[in-house]
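To: structure subgroup
Subject: Chain for Friday's discussion

All,

I'm putting the inputs and outputs inline so they're searchable in the archive.
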Amino acid sequence: MAAHLSAFLGAWAALAFVGPLVLWLVKRDDHPFIAHHALEALNFNLSILIYAIAAAVLAFTIIGLVIAIPAAIAIGVGWVVLTIVAAVKAANGEGYRYPMTIRFVS
């Protein structure tokens, strides 16, 4: 659960992936369950960072501005909701895979 919720601590500086990364590096060999959730949170937060950068780049075009504002809102709301869902699943001892996640680290 800490792997998922630690993303909120670094989100203000676009570093939401740091908490899950540290937890994954520390616990990946000792606890498979923790490693799974930390890896999922890491990949999800890296994906969200890429999506947010793409929305920001699109905002610099006229057509992109119309698309980027709703996309940024959807990305933000989706990030918060899916992070909370994943944390609840982890607290219940269940596995969870984030949707629309690019698997950077496996």
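Points worth raising on Friday:
The chain has a mean pLDDT of 87.
The longest helix spans residues 62-91.

D.
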